[in-house]
Specification:
85 residues, mainly alpha, 434 Repressor (Amino-terminal Domain), 5 helices, 51% helix
């Protein structure tokens, strides 16, 4: 049996951030982020946008890597994505 790959966890670990750091920055609970990271839930589009901005990724790239439903033709202005820095 092969080990399950969790793309969001890989993205986060490669960035050097903890679950708590990401959760605090995007405005959610660490436990909720852990559910997303472990593939137990798919975040709402608003949260997906915040995650993409946090990791400096295109939304579609994040959705493809995490195997979330794609939201085509969405352009994200980081200044409007919840004030993330």
């Amino acid at each position: 049996m092969s080990k399950k790959i969790f793309p969001l966890r890989t993205i986060r670990k490669q960035s050097g951030h903890t679950q708590q750091q990401v959760a605090d920055t995007i405005g959610t609970y660490r436990e909720r982020f852990a559910y997303w990271e472990n593939g137990l839930q798919v975040p709402r589009l608003e949260s997906q946008i915040k995650i993409a901005v946090f990791f400096n990724m295109a939304l579609v790239e994040l959705q493809k890597r995490c195997e979330w439903p794609l939201t085509p033709h969405v352009t994200v202005n980081p200044e409007l994505a919840g004030g993330l820095k």
